[in-house]
């Protein structure tokens, strides 16, 4: 009987610890130059990555993975960031956001969060956010912008600090 009690306590402790390490939050934004709203939600998988969703006022939804860039980020882990983007070095205004990011990308974006979201029609939205408190990741709050792949429209975004 004691083994069952100890096993139950161990399982509950692991579940509780998992809940404490995961974080989640919301953000808000708008399409630049308009008052069209965009609502953001994020769910952390670990300290430096997780899932993000952006929902436009029209009901259009983009979903994907975000990454916080740190000094020890491996570039190959960031491969999903370039899905759906046709890079043109002459016309791309997102500095260092090329198909072969290399160490310059990590150096430039260290302490920032980057994401590549997509909708059901295959359009992509890339995002980069400046964190207020990088040690806390997305939970520390931040702001930034996103860009749609098909129209080049940009979205301003803010994420409040989570308590």
What's the topology here?
Layout: H1 2-21, E1 24-31, E2 37-44, E3 49-56, E4 61-68, H2 102-109, E5 112-118, E6 124-131, E7 142-148, E8 154-159
Antiparallel strand pairs: 1-2, 1-8, 2-3, 3-4, 4-5, 5-6, 6-7, 7-8
CATH topology name, in short, is Lipocalin
CATH superfamily: Quinohemoprotein amine dehydrogenase alpha subunit, domain 2
Largest sheet: 8 strands, antiparallel, barrel
**Strands, count:** 8
Briefly, what CATH class? Mainly Beta
- Overall geometry: globular
Helix fraction by DSSP (H/I, runs of at least 4): 10-25%
Q: How does this model look, in words?
A:
The chain has an eight-stranded antiparallel barrel. The chain is 17% helix and 37% strand. The chain has a single domain, classed as Beta Barrel (Lipocalin), CATH 2.40.128.120. It is built from two helices and eight strands. The termini are far apart. With 163 residues, it is α+β, with helices and mostly antiparallel strands. Mean pLDDT is 79; it is low at 1-20. A hairpin with a 5-residue loop joins strand 1 (24-31) and strand 2 (37-44).
């Amino acid at each position: 009987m004691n083994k069952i009690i100890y096993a139950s306590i161990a399982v509950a402790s692991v579940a509780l610890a998992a809940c404490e390490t995961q974080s989640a939050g919301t953000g808000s934004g708008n399409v630049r130059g308009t008052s069209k709203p965009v609502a953001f939600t994020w769910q952390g998988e670990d300290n430096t990555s997780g899932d993000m969703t952006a929902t436009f006022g029209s009901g259009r939804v983009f979903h994907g993975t975000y990454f916080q860039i740190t000094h020890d980020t491996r570039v190959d882990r960031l491969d999903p960031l370039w899905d759906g983007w046709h890079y043109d070095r002459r016309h791309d205004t997102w500095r260092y956001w090329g198909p072969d990011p290399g160490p310059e990308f990590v150096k430039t974006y260290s302490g920032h969060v980057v994401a590549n979201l997509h909708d059901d029609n295959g359009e992509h939205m890339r995002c980069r956010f400046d964190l207020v408190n990088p040690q806390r990741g997305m939970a520390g709050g931040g702001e930034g912008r996103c860009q749609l792949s098909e129209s080049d429209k940009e979205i301003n975004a803010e994420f409040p600090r989570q308590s």
